[in-house]
Design brief:
The protein is an alpha+beta fold. The chain has 3 domains: 84 residues, Rossmann fold; 65 residues, Dna Ligase, domain 1, CATH 3.30.1490.20; 195 residues, D-amino Acid Aminotransferase, Chain A, domain 1 (2-Layer Sandwich), CATH 3.30.470.20. It is built from 13 helices and 17 strands. Helix 3 packs antiparallel against helix 4 and helix 4 crosses helix 5. The longest helix is centred in the middle third of the chain and has 17 residues. The radius of gyration is 20 Å and the shape is globular. Bound molecules: adenosine-5'-triphosphate and magnesium ion (2 copies). The site of adenosine-5'-triphosphate has 16 residues, from strand 14.
Length: 380
């Protein structure tokens, strides 16, 4: 019996445990809170990721360790490697945890990025805004997620407010200023690399965010083959440079037909949730196959899929359950403003069918505005 240890017990760990059950796998989840939602399906070690005794107990009970939470301290991940195989490796994790290291790697690999500058002081911020121009975004280098730890600077008049909001973070987690990309689309590549270096990617996904949080994903993205190939080759270069094992996601902006890299997620990703029903092998199962050294599964799509995120509270399930191709995921979390509590995936064999399903479900859910941009894209 193989036990997979997962650091972080959120919905990603929960869906990993569900995907691993048919493979006969056992799971052990470590999280700092006892009511983490993956704990409903797997035993838990409750403890801080820097607590050596909790980490030692975790390591003693698992055959391999991986992550649901990308901000597990890289030193803790490194400490674990002396006791148990850890995938992805701590260097890959550390790179993806720091927007500066991540963007520097993108640039070194020839992957285009928006202009960026490290910010340690208010003077540097003034100079960097002058250099990069407005609009631009000040972001924390570490620990940001769902658009948290970001301030949009629309004109130089906003610099003072940006520094008020984030300046104190400069000494703690570091800051980076990025040029604002007036993108036409946001895309992501979800891909997997095995222990033997085999690389596979799912079809490109288009994503829509609201207030910095993912709202909807559509796969396959309606982009030409050349752009899809470029995006996938960027992800492959990164995976190879980091000797990455497991699933990763590369977030990209598309502007004037050019791709610019935003960030790398060193884990299964929200924009890949559609793969559970929309692909031959889900990102969760392929992540497990990769970290266990098993053959990777086919990443081919089955029709077309749209994923809708439920933020704050779950809507009425029946509106989705009554749809052919409608799939419901309730993470078993307490409702809370801004929290990802579940998602739905709507799958159909053609764009026309998917439009019809989205329009019906959108009305029944009272989520017309959430489905609208996806419908517009599908209508071409
Ligand atoms: P995630 O939850 O994806 O990890 P995050 O907090 O790490 O989010 P980003 O992905 O950097 O943050 O930003 C969230 C969203 O904000 C992006 O998906 C995009 O919509 C917008 N955004 C971020 N940076 C830029 C930029 N430089 N130009 C334009 N929009 C941006
Ligand atoms: Mg991020
Ligand atoms: Mg992001």
């Amino acid at each position: 019996m193989t036990t997979v240890g997962i650091l972080g017990g959120g919905q990603l760990a929960r869906m990993m445990a569900l995907a691993g059950a048919p493979l006969g796998l056992r799971f052990l989840v470590m999280d700092s809170v006892a009511d983490a939602c993956a704990g409903q399906f797997a035993p838990m070690v409750v403890g801080d990721y820097t607590d050596e005794s909790a980490l030692a107990e975790f390591a003693s009970r698992v055959d391999v360790a991986t992550f649901d939470f990308e901000n597990v301290p890289a030193e803790s991940a490194q400490w674990l490697t002396s006791r148990v195989p850890v995938f992805p490796n701590p260097r890959a994790l550390a790179t993806a945890q720091d927007r500066l290291a991540e963007k520097t790697l993108f640039r070194d690999l020839g992957i285009p990025v928006p202009p960026f500058a490290v910010i340690d002081t208010r003077e540097q911020l003034d100079a960097a805004v002058a250099e990069i121009g407005t609009p631009c975004i000040l972001k924390t280098r570490r620990l940001g997620y769902d658009g948290k730890g970001q301030f949009r600077i629309k004109s130089p008049a906003d610099i003072a407010a940006a520094w008020d909001a984030l300046g104190a973070q400069a000494a703690k987690v570091g800051l980076i200023l990025e040029g604002f990309v007036a993108f036409e689309r946001e895309l992501s590549v979800v891909a997997v690399r095995g222990r033997d270096g085999e690389f596979r990617a799912w079809p490109l996904t288009e994503n829509w965010h609201v207030d910095g949080v993912l709202s909807a994903s559509l796969a396959p993205a309606t982009v030409d083959d050349a752009m899809a190939a470029t995006a996938i080759s960027h992800a492959r270069k990164l995976a190879e440079a980091l000797d990455y094992v497991g699933v990763l996601a590369l977030e990209l902006f598309c502007r004037d037909g050019e791709l610019l890299a935003n960030e790398l997620a060193p884990r299964v990703h929200n924009s890949g949730h559609w793969t559970i029903e929309g692909s031959e092998t889900s990102q969760f199962q392929n992540h497990l196959r990769a970290v266990l050294g098993l053959p990777l599964g086919d990443t081919r799509m089955v029709g077309q899929a749209c994923m809708l995120n439920w933020i704050g509270a779950m809507p009425d399930a029946n509106a989705v359950l009554r749809e052919p191709g409608g799939h419901w995921h309730d993470y078993g979390k307490q409702p809370r403003e801004g929290r990802k509590v579940g998602h739905a995936t709507l799958r159909a064999d053609s764009a026309q069918e998917l439009i019809a399903v989205l329009e019906r479900a959108g009305v029944a859910l009272g989520r017309e505005t959430q489905v609208a941009p996806v419908v517009v894209r599908l209508q071409g």
